[in-house]
């Protein structure tokens, strides 16, 4: 719902067919023809991939959680930086408005690991109190992005219709074969690389990012007193979830988990 004069104007223009839903919902002045959006369901590896992208397109080596928005802005936390950034831009979002995005890098992660990570994230922020089982029901009320299955289904459907406009990456593949996946990433963005693929991977190593956050802090640590980068492991949920919780997630997301080779 609009709250400012600018938002009311943008909502009116949208009703008149002027502008895009994405620019309105993300509060962007415009969607530029060479914009690339980094999109995912929350807690799917989006932030880690931002650092890899930042090192691919920027010659800076001082990138931290404090200044990453200067290179690959989060449209929710740093929309002013996003609007001021010269083209070509890579912008982080969780809204799967893929039809409005010129090109999309979409990263997906096993819903079991996603939910476990999201649970710890919301607990740390004090936004949720309760068991993991109760969180499974509450998770989709904490954001406007739909369920995990709805979100990834949009990406799969869009990829079938417009394969040239979307790169679909699995978090697990990025961990297991980073050079192969980052080569795909570099080819998709099509920019001259500022760091080599090997350098970008090394500079974005998870342990290094944890150390940088410990040294410099982050907006998340400011709010929670804890680190955003927790473990980053793949398959951790399999050993931590109860059989009942695991089965509940399997029942709800079986179709998309199978389509994405998680089953």
Account of the protein in words:
By secondary structure, the chain is α/β, with parallel strands linked by helices. It contains 14 helices and four strands. It has helices spanning 5-15, 21-25, 46-57, 79-84, 111-125, 132-138, 148-161, 171-176, 178-189, 197-203, 206-216, 219-224, 237-240, 243-259; strands at 36-39, 90-93, 103-108, 166-170. The chain has a four-stranded parallel β-sheet with strand order 2-1-3-4, sandwiched between helices. The chain is globular and about 50 Å long. The chain starts with a helix and ends with a helix.
What distinguishing features does this structure have?
alpha/beta; 2 domains; Rossmann fold; about 260 residues
How is the topology of this model organized?
Layout: H1 5-15, H2 21-25, E1 36-39, H3 46-57, H4 79-84, E2 90-93, E3 103-108, H5 111-125, H6 132-138, H7 148-161, E4 166-170, H8 171-176, H9 178-189, H10 197-203, H11 206-216, H12 219-224, H13 237-240, H14 243-259
Parallel strand pairs: 1-2, 1-3, 3-4
Which strand-content bin applies to the residues? 5-15%
The total number of structural domains is 2
Q: Which regions have little confidence, pLDDT < 50, spanning 5+ residues?
A: none
Order of helices and strands: HHEHHEEHHHEHHHHHHH
């Amino acid at each position: 719902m609009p709250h400012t004069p600018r938002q009311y104007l943008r909502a009116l223009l949208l009703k008149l067919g002027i502008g895009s839903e994405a620019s309105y919902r993300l509060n962007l002045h415009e969607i530029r023809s060479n914009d690339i959006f980094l999109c995912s369901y929350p807690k799917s590896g989006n932030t880690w991939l931002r650092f890899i992208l930042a090192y691919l397109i920027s010659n800076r080596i001082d990138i931290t959680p404090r200044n990453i928005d200067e290179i690959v802005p989060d449209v929710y936390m740093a929309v002013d930086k996003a609007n001021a950034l010269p083209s070509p831009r890579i912008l982080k979002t969780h809204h799967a408005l893929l039809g409005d995005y010129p090109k999309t890098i979409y990263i997906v992660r096993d819903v079991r690991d996603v939910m476990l990570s999201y649970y710890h994230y919301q607990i740390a922020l004090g936004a949720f109190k309760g068991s993991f089982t109760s969180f499974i029901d509450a998770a989709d009320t904490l954001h406007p992005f739909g369920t995990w299955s709805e979100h990834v289904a949009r990406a799969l459907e869009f990829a079938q219709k417009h394969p040239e406009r979307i790169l679909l990456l699995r978090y697990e593949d990025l961990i297991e074969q980073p050079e192969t996946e980052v080569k795909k990433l570099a080819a998709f963005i099509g920019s001259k690389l500022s760091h080599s693929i090997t350098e970008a991977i090394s500079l974005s190593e998870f342990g290094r990012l944890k150390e940088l956050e410990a040294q410099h802090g982050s907006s998340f640590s400011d709010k929670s007193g804890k680190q955003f980068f927790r473990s980053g492991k793949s398959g951790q949920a399999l050993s931590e979830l109860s059989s009942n919780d695991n089965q509940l997630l399997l029942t709800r997301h079986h179709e998309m988990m199978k389509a994405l080779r998680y089953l």
